[in-house]
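Structural biology now treats backbone shape like a language. To illustrate, our science desk offers a sequence and the tokens encoding its fold:
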Amino acid sequence: MWLSLYLSIERSVEVYVPVKKYFIEQENCPLEIKQFFERDEVPCVLSFLQYILFEIHKKNLELKRSYTTLVDLYRIITSIKSKLQERIDSDFFGATCRYRLARLPSDIQKTLKISFIEFLRAIICYIDSYFDQNVTLYQTISYFDFQNIESLTWNQVIQCVDLLKIKGLNDDCLFDEFTNIKSTLKIILQQRISVFDQVQTFINKQGDIAVTNECKEEKNDDDADHSENRIVRSDQFWMYMFSLTQSPNFKKLVCFLYSLPCSNAYVESAFSQLKYLCNDKRNCMTIDLLSAELKIRLNSSLSCIEMYKHVLSNQDLLKAIK
């Protein structure tokens, strides 16, 4: 529940002054509420919570992205743990909090700092209670994240294959494909055009396969975020890489890794869509028809008109329909 507290805290900070004025001016204001608003440390605590919970809120949203997989989990979790630990080591709880903290008596400052540090440590312990159970798995899979691809070694590839016990892979061919991928990666990195621009050019040419299960507004926000920061999505990079190399074994390995979900967000989105597909007004539809419509909704961002035109222009689809 505390993962969703940020928006509530943010709202509390925004309305704190008028709400305080409203209650203080009341003749019959309850004593507990009056004492709360009269305490000088309250704005400082709210500033601290707003600052820390914002960092956690960003990582929580990152985990819920439709394209976030288990490959990304180790990077995301270690990143937030590192940020929290740095704030503990530096006694830094946000610029606004630091300013308000400096205006309080020294004994209250000391008490608040201790409570802030305990709060941050409690968050780290909470994360570790879930994360440490399978940290070896998460770290091994993270080798295939875009940020680690350049330093990816054959031993790491084999370690991942052995840990996940993926069947049907030819180790000899896998090694040859690995060396080809490393060579191709060097060529990509040596190009005058950035990797981000190369990948985006490739993805833009794909059109109908660059799909998402998010609504268009969320998709546009995500795309804008990546474009502004020029962040290369790992899944899109591998799509680009496999378009340049013939690597059936390595592709099978990577596809398996990127099929492992990072959270239950995708499953929840499926049930959310199903709620609108199956109702009293559509009770004559067969299960197969509902299943087909659900797959289209989850795996395509095309509008109804675009989907209609796409079907009419695709001879293979028309033959399958007949």
Observations:
- Residues 208-220 have pLDDT under 50 and may be disordered.
- The chain has three domains: 2-137, 145-257, 265-321.
- Residues 265-321 form one domain.
